Structures are given as structure tokens and as C-alpha cells.
Here is the input.
Amino acid sequence: AQTVTQSQPEMSVQEAETVTLSCTYDTSESDYYLFWYKQPPSRQMILVIRQEAYKQQNATENRFSVNFQKAAKSFSLKISDSQLGDAAMYFCAYRRTGNTPLVFGKGTRLSVIA
Amino acid sequence: NAGVTQTPKFQVLKTGQSMTLQCAQDMNHEYMSWYRQDPGMGLRLIHYSVGAGITDQGEVPNGYNVSRSTTEDFPLRLLSAAPSQTSVYFCASSSRNRDMNTEAFFGQGTRLTVV
Here is the structure.
């Protein structure tokens, strides 16, 4: 079974600085998707960024970017110019292609210090 | 576009009571799933469905029942509530079409407390 590991239960970053959240996963598949979701105190699950395994180029969305290392099965999230609104729980998730649901890591709680 | 609508947002149950959490989506998504979120555990899959009439168990299915009679609806039934089922529940849907977004869209969650 696929597993997703987030080794940092909590992280903190100074406002305007850069922070990287780690995620590793275990799979024998070659075709899959990886996601980072943000969960603010409102509880809503918000997609931050998505990466397709067959694409070598790292995904970017404004201040958010990933470092996708397929061979190492690593998928870290970099947040640049951190803002107070970035404070949230962040979940890394994996999905195999086909009829499969998401598998989540346990999450990293990010605090942003003013 | 409403997306995924999940009700209720909050619920308190007594041990042994039964209830149904409702989930509806208007995006014609094939996939729907239910997760529970507990502190330090992330989101764990309870049940999922790949289409109307088809359901399957996830990681933590015990004590829960689902059915998928239509594409739009995927209710989660708690048969006899237990304190261990105190959690936040999320419904999610996604398309299996690779050319469309493969992300999962989530409902707003239900905070369930069993006393």
C-alpha cells in the first residue's frame, strides 16, 4: 500500500522568509499525482499545488513551488515570502492513476511569525 | 457552482445513536470518498466510490456504511455511534478524466462529537 510521510509535525517561519515542508512517499507505481493541500483554521481543504509524476518540471503557483525528486520519492513544498495568511496545516497527498482515492500524510502545522 | 456540499457542519450524538452525514456534488464527478481527520493522524479514508452503484472500503471502515445510488450523492451512515467516532469528517469528489483536474474537491467538513 502507498504511504505518505511528513516528518515535520510543526514548522515556523518569519514573515517574508522562505520555508520548506518535507514529504516523502512510497509507491511502486510510475504514473501518479502528488498534491499539497492547505487547511486553515476554517477547516476548509484548499489545493495549493499539484504535480504529475510524468512531468519532470517542478510545479509552481505564485509563491508556492515544489521540489519533485521522483527517484528519491520526495515532494517538498517551498513557500517564499511567507505571509501571515499562510499559517495553516499542510497536507501532502498521493494519488495513483485509475480508480483510486487520495492517500494523505499526517500533516505539518505551519506558524508564521510577524 | 456549489461544488461539494456536506451537511451538517456540527453534530453531537449520544453513544448508540445512528445518523447519516450527507454529501452531494454537482460537478458530475465519478469519484467520491469519505475521510475522517483526527489530531496527529492526517486524513484517513473510510469508504470510497468510483461510480454509482460501486463502493469500497478504505483504511478505517468499521462502524460506517455507505451507498451510491446516484452520481451526485454519497451519504455516510454511522450505525451505532461510539466515542471513538468523535472526529471531523470530510467528503471529497474528483474526476477520473485525466484531461480534467484530478484534484479532489472537499466539503466543508462535519465536526462530530459522540458523548
Q: What stands out?
A: The interface with chain B takes residues 6, 9, 33, 35, 43-45, 47, 50, 91, 93, 95, 97-99, 101-107 of chain A (CB under 8 Å).
